[in-house]
Write a structure and sequence with these properties.
Blueprint (H helix, E strand, L loop, with lengths): L10 H14 L18 E3 L2 E5 L5 E5 L1 H15 L6 H18 L8
Antiparallel strand pairs: 1-2, 2-3
Length: 110
Amino acid sequence: MIIILRPEDNATEILERISEFLRKRGMQVSQKKTKVTATTDGFDFLGWNFKVQSNGKFRSTPSVGNFKAFRKKVKTIVNNSNYGAKVKAEKLAPLVRGWRNYHCHCKMNG
């Protein structure tokens, strides 16, 4: 879950209220996974990097870790000498299609 606050909001107080809400329902906020950060610093979530730019526009792009993992999978297939060109293409197609479909709504052209 991502919660974006205004600069004047008290993040600690809101986090405590969310924790209390979840506690009443038998759940808890994971301290390992919870991060309070400025949106201008950016953050990664589900393979995406989210950031509010200095001009105030919200930007989302595939995260560096997500892109590195994708490239590693592609490289493994391409560099496998046991595969012919046709087999490589057959193995790459669903991988590329899946990555493209997952990230199809972001503008990576700047």
